[in-house]
Amino acid sequence: MFNQEHLAASLAELGQARMLPRAAYLDDDVLAWEQRHFFGGWTCAGRAEDLAEPGAHRAVAVGPTEGVLLTRARDGRLRAFVNACRHRGHELLPCGGSAVKRVLTCPYHAWTYDVDGALRAAPGFRDLDKSGFGLIELPSAEWHGWVFVALDADPPPFAEHVGALEDTVAPYSPAELTTVTSHEYVVAANWKTIVENYQECYHCALIHPELCQVSPPESGENLDLPGDWVGGWMDLRDGAATMSLDGRSGGSPIPGLDEHRLRTVMYAAMFPNLLISLHPDYVMTHRLTPLAPGRTRVECAWLFPAEVASRPGFDPAYAVDFWDLTNRQDWAACESVQRGIAAARYQPGPLAPDEDGVHQFIRMVALKYLGEP
Q1: What is the DSSP secondary structure assignment for residue 51, as one 8-state letter?
Q2: What average pLDDT does the structure give for the chain?
Q3: What whole-number percentage of the chain has pLDDT above 90?
Q4: Can you state the angle between helices 191-198 and 356-369, rounded to 10 degrees?
Q5: Could you give the CA distance from residue 316 to residue 180 in angstroms, rounded to a whole number?
Q6: Where are the strands (E) in the chain, listed by range?
Q7: CATH fold of 4-39+163-370
Q8: How many C-beta neighbours within 10 Å does residue 153 have?
Q9: Domain locations in the chain?
Q10: Homologous superfamily of 43-155 in CATH?
Q11: Which of 62, 80, 173, 174 would disulfide-bridge 140, Cβ 3.0–4.6 Å?
């Protein structure tokens, strides 16, 4: 697919580096490779609160072609399986579907499975050894309220994947937050274009006037720490309590945050598909699912302290309206970038000094294309 020569410019130091090759954003073969190698590793599959009670099942997409079935077993353990009946491969639940049941029955031929994946019934089969036809289990992990799965049978340790991101995220106690609302977007751009846009504010002065009212676009710092992630922080302007259209919070600060976190917004792109934005009073995430080289589904969720979310009349619109506007500004830019890259004579351009986060991300991607961790 790509060799060292193809990626040499993307692997160069900031100041000499160029964006990834054009094919990385356009080719079906590249996306198919990414499905196996990027989305085959640890990938965010949603929130644990969506599977809160024993017997809960949920079917989700992981990458452009793979379906995963998440279940909450009777012992409280979350498990993940290939979303395919062991008989003829029919999905146990349609993608996006959910149910709370003691058993799950395939709608095609009524093969029935326990919540731990064991086959309990196979109508018409008298001598079938059911123990050999349980659902195919996948590695899974819960981390601060998010669910992660790996399609690979033997992924690297999850703690290695997280690395130093643990220390960045833990103070916000995301597992104790409640998802109050979510939006779904379909963006006509490659998933990497969306991550690259997320990693810089070089564009903010031109397309995000509302954001610049509450955060200086030149502020903050990108971090370079262990783990499969890229991120950093931005300052809030004096007088701004959070990211909202007027800088005011409609909630309360997340308990336990220090002064630095009360005056900044932390952001992290957890490879390959979870973007985490940590505000003083709420957490916002984008979960990316590639649908095609130039098409990505983005599920955006807003999480608040449970005490705030339960207040009579609480309205998350102060955060949601701000980010829905900002998201749509970003999506328009990403879609324009995708159209530009599709031009037959497009050539990858250089990175500005303020795009060090983008440089970290494309270098990470380029190294993974070459098979390096």
Answers
A1: G
A2: 97
A3: 97
A4: 150
A5: 7
A6: 43-47, 56-62, 66-72, 78-82, 98-100, 103-105, 112-114, 119-121, 137-138, 140-143, 146-149, 177-187, 221-223, 229-235, 264-270, 274-278, 283-292, 295-305
A7: Naphthalene 1,2-dioxygenase Alpha Subunit; Chain A, domain 1 (3.90.380)
A8: 10
A9: 4-39+163-370, 43-155
A10: Rieske [2Fe-2S] iron-sulphur domain (2.102.10.10)
A11: 80
Residue 216 structure tokens? 């200086």
- 136, two tokens: 């195919």
What is residue 65's predicted lDDT score, i.e. its pLDDT? 86
Residue pLDDT, tens place only, 259-298: 999 999 999 999 999 999 999 999 999 999 999 999 999 9
Measured CA to CA, the distance from residue 81 to residue 194 in angstroms comes to: 28
Residue type, 353: P
At residue 267, φ and ψ (nearest 5 deg) are -140, 145
Same fold, 4-39+163-370 and 43-155: no
Q: How open is the CA angle 56-61-67, to the nearest 5 degrees? A: 80
Q: How far apart are the first and last CA of the chain?
A: 17
Pairwise CA distance, residues 24 & 39, whole Å: 15
With bands split at pLDDT 50, 70 and 90, how would you rate the model's confidence at 39? very high
**0.85 exceeded by the pTM?**
yes
